[in-house]
Amino acid sequence: MPGMGGVAVGQQTRQRLRAFALGRSGSGRLLRVALRIAGFFVFGASLLLPLLLLLLLLLLLLLLLLLLLLLELQLRLLVLLQLPLALLF
């Protein structure tokens, strides 16, 4: 019967396609991993980018506060060093 061979080939093709879709074949697994990585960069980056920008802003504010503190300490030290000279004259 000529129709029986066609059915077997169609069934085998369906099994291969199903294995590919489920990621059980080598190329299907690779495609699934690639899509997972791409999804992380598309959706994960859109979630992480505002958090990273906020963290960068907080770091810059902390650096600015540290700089202001160092300037204040430098001015206090300068005043303390000039005080004995002012007492001499």
Number of structural units classed as domains: 1
Proportion of helical residues? over 70%
Beta fraction: under 5%
Number of strands: 0
- Counting DSSP H or I runs of 4 or more residues, the number of helices is 2
Mean pLDDT: 78
Terminal Cα span: 122 Å
Keywords: Membrane, Transmembrane, Transmembrane helix
Transmembrane segments: 37-70
Commentary on this structure:
The chain has 89 residues and is mainly α. It has one domain (2-88). It has two helices and no strands. It has helices at 2-22, 26-88. α1 runs parallel beside α2 (26-88). The longest helix is centred in the middle third of the chain and has 63 residues, at 26-88. The N and C termini lie far apart (122 Å). Keywords: Membrane, Transmembrane, Transmembrane helix. The chain crosses the membrane at residues 37-70.
Task: Give the secondary structure arrangement, pairings included.
Layout (H helix, E strand, L loop, with lengths): L1 H21 L3 H63 L1
Helix pairs in contact: 1-2
